[in-house]
Amino acid sequence: MSNSKGWIKVQRKLFKHYLWEENRKLSKFEAWLDLLQLVSYAKENQQLISGLLCKWGRGQYPISISFLCKRWNWTDKPVRNFLKMLEDDEMITLEKASKWTMLTVCKYDSYQGEGQAEGMPKGKQRATIKEDKESKEYKEFELFWSKYPRKVAKGKCQEKFNKLSTSDKQQILDSLDAYIKYKPFEGYNHPNPETYLNQKRWLDELPNKQMIIEDPVVKMAMELNKKYENR
């Protein structure tokens, strides 16, 4: 028994698949499916048609009978009859203009809304979740990269950064400003970003200013640095 509850989301690239693009006469169902993917998802669209500016919105698309005949491999009369049937069933509306006919799919959001795709995680498809995750990782890394004072081996650093846990990434972003400000002596250079990530330097316990001044190693480094500066 087929399950008629819920619904599935279909990417538009499906209609570029060789099975769909096979030269054939489309069935009525295929023609209806083609209209659903043909109309626009975006709210604002415009195009010059025969020298006139045509504007349309979400769930709409400017058509002509000859245009659909070619797409569906139908003749004139079947296309007109099919569109009339859809109009009578209140599935579409047609508004004629001088150079085109504006087709509007009724209740378009019931086909392309934000409902749950059956068999997918609630609220979004797996592909959408993956895209959101990748977008978030990109933004987090770019924030890290924009702040870190040394710009070396960005590709390797991004790969290592993306493999970190969520908590590690958050610790990096929370502590990075203080880490960058930490300079135990004049002329100090922070490690390369790849070294920073490999050594988990965001876990360093940064000493306060007084501890830095009293550190004998730091004192020696400061004296050497002044010595070279005075040469």
What characteristic shape results from the CA principal axes? rod-shaped
How many angstroms does the end-to-end distance come to? 89 Å
Describe the main β-sheet briefly: 3 strands, antiparallel
Roughly how much helix do the residues carry, as a percent range?
40-55%
User: What structural class do helix, strand and pairing data support?
Assistant: mainly alpha
Order of helices and strands: HEEEHHEEHHHHHHH
Number of strands: 5
Give the strand order, joined by hyphens, for the main sheet: 3-5-4
Please count the helical segments.
Answer: 10
Which terms summarize this structure?
3-stranded antiparallel sheet; 47% helix; Arc Repressor Mutant, subunit A; two-stranded antiparallel ribbon; mainly alpha; 10 helices; 231 residues
Notes on the structure:
This protein has 2 domains: 101 residues, Winged helix-like DNA-binding domain superfamily/Winged helix DNA-binding domain (Arc Repressor Mutant, subunit A), CATH 1.10.10; 104 residues, no CATH class. The N and C termini lie far apart (89 Å). The protein has a 3-stranded antiparallel sheet. A two-stranded antiparallel ribbon has the order 1-2. Helix 5 runs parallel beside helix 7. It has 10 helices and 5 strands, in the order H-E-E-E-H-H-E-E-H-H-H-H-H-H-H. The mean pLDDT is 83. Strand 4 and strand 5 form a beta hairpin. It is mainly α and 231 residues long. It is 47% helix and 10% strand.
Concise description?
It is built from 10 helices and 5 strands. By secondary structure, the chain is mostly helical.
Which SSEs are present, and which pair or pack?
Layout: H1 28-38, E1 45-49, E2 52-56, E3 60-63, H2 65-72, H3 76-88, E4 92-96, E5 101-105, H4 109-112, H5 126-147, H6 154-162, H7 166-181, H8 193-198, H9 209-214, H10 216-229
Antiparallel strand pairs: 1-2, 3-5, 4-5
